[in-house]
Amino acid sequence: MTGRMATPQQSNGLVFAMHFIPVLNLLAMFMLHDAPQKNHTPKENAQYYIQRDTSALAHWIVVLGVLFALIGGVRTWLSYDSFLSEKMYSFYAFGDMGDSGMQLIKLSLLLIIAGYFIKVLGYVLLYNHRSAVFFIVTMNILLLVLTFLEVLPLAMLFSIAAFASFFVLMEIFHPALHNDDALLLTEPEIA
Q1: How far apart are the C-alpha atoms of 109 and 172, rounded to whole Å?
Q2: Where does the chain have alpha helices with state H?
Q3: Fewer CB in a 10 Å sphere around the end CB: N or C, the chain?
Q4: How high is the pLDDT of residue 94?
Q5: Which top-level group of life is the source organism from (predicted)?
Q6: Confidence band (pLDDT; 50, 70, 90) for 125?
Q7: 3-class SS at 10?
Q8: What is the Cα Rg of the chain in Å?
Q9: How high is the pLDDT of residue 34?
Q10: Neighbours of 70 (CB within 10 A)
Q11: What is the largest CA-CA distance in the chain?
């Protein structure tokens, strides 16, 4: 997908993001299928891949990531606050969970809240630190599993999507060529 976008020098972030969304990926493929080639050699593709400007898409990813992390944290905090109210406490206490079960639920909610707010830091660090990508993906998977623990198959499905986001984040924030592709940039030009 990235190689097909490099050949016509297509830098539209929306088209790139469409490749990761089922059904829309077909539309993106058709849009690029007949696009005229601007890069004619693998070396030109490699140079374009490393030098392309993805800053607009990167900014949107960070802004939306921070926004959704804050919304998730606040939403969980509000549910935690209502959980601590007398009405909710008596409901759970009536279910014979006991104090240790209540403490476990409180601790889980606090960990989820902390995870959302720590993710904000991860999104801010995305620009300069490759490890922030690993951190965000790991936090997404952990938060999904903790949030949807009762519905584990749903948590696993969302976790697969979170893992796929790793590739998107790496392509946008820290593109790198590997193996033979990286050698293309070091080879001298043949006239």
Answers
A1: 32
A2: 2-6, 13-18, 24-33, 42-51, 55-84, 86-94, 98-125, 131-147, 152-173, 179-184
A3: C
A4: 46
A5: Bacteria
A6: very high
A7: coil
A8: 22
A9: 76
A10: 14
A11: 82
Helix (H, G, I), strand (E, B), or coil: what is residue 52? Answer: coil
Q: How far apart are CA 53 and CA 50, in angstroms?
A: 9
Residue whose tokens read 């490699």? 46
| Phi, psi torsion values for 88, nearest 5 degrees | -70, -40
DSSP letters along 170-186, please?
HHHHS----HHHHHHTT
Contact predicate 80/110, CB 8 Å: yes
Q: Which two tokens stand for residue 84?
A: 């601590």
Looking up tokens 């490393």, which residue turns up?
50
Q: What does the block give as tokens for 106?
A: 């409180």
More confident site: 54 or 126: 126
**pLDDT tens-place string over residues 96-123:** 555 666 677 777 778 888 888 899 999 9
% of the chain at pLDDT higher than 70: 71
Torsion angle of C-alpha atoms 72, 77, 78, 81, degrees rounded to 10: 160
What's the rounded Cα separation, in Å, for the pair 106 and 62? 30
CA–CA dist 49, 12 (Å, integer)? 13
Exposed/middle/buried for residue 21 (C-beta within 10 Å: 0-12, 13-18, 19+): exposed
Residue 28 tokens, joined: 């993106």
Within 10 angstroms of residue 41's Cβ, the number of other Cβ atoms is: 10
